């Protein structure tokens, strides 16, 4: 038994758990609702990996170009959780209203535990 008294999860229970969170968000700048989902492990690694670069001297550089649009491409979805955007859409997303991007970015960060307080 574990600390909860329920016993340890099996492999099948872990792999079949419905653990993706999806949240509707009204975006007034766009006049409608979008759905935002939490990142899965692969998406989080992809996002975090896209935010750093190592130069020829081994120095790590943090990248900030289109950070919001990159996270939105990995988290904005339909009501069933299917992503709406691809890597090719990031430049176009980055040209959208900054307030709308911020609004969605905040929800995506919260759902995926990416806020500074979550990372600490």
Question: Could you characterize the architecture of this molecule?
Answer:
With 120 residues, the protein is an alpha+beta fold. 39% of the residues lie in helices and 17% in strands. The chain is built from six helices and five strands; from the N terminus they run αββαββαβααα. The strands form two sheets. A three-stranded antiparallel β-sheet has the order 1-2-5. A hairpin with a 4-residue loop joins strand 1 and strand 2. The chain is globular, with a radius of gyration of 17 Å. The mean pLDDT is 88.
Throw out a few tags for this protein.
6 helices; globular; two-stranded antiparallel ribbon; alpha+beta; 120 residues
Distance between the termini: 30 Å
List low-pLDDT spans: none
What is the tally of helical segments? 6
| Residue fraction in strands | 15-25%
Reading the helices and strands in chain order gives HEEHEEHEHHH
Shape: globular
Total number of strands: 5
Q: Major beta sheet, specifics?
A: 3 strands, antiparallel
**Strand arrangement, largest sheet?**
1-2-5
What integer value in Å does the Rg equal? 17 Å
Helix % is 25-40%
Please tell me the overall pLDDT: 88
Helix/strand/pairing category:
alpha+beta
């Amino acid at each position: 038994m574990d600390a909860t008294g329920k016993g340890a999860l099996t492999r099948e229970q872990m792999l079949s758990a419905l653990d993706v969170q999806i949240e509707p968000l009204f975006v007034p700048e766009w006049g409608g609702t979008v759905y935002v989902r939490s990142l899965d492990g692969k998406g989080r690694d992809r996002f975090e990996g896209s935010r750093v670069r190592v130069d020829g001297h081994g120095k790590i550089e943090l990248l900030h170009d289109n950070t919001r649009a990159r996270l939105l491409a990995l988290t904005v979805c339909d009501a069933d959780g299917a992503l709406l955007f691809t890597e090719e859409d990031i430049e176009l997303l980055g040209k959208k209203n900054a307030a709308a991007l911020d609004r969605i970015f905040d929800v995506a960060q919260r759902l995926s535990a990416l806020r500074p307080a979550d990372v600490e």
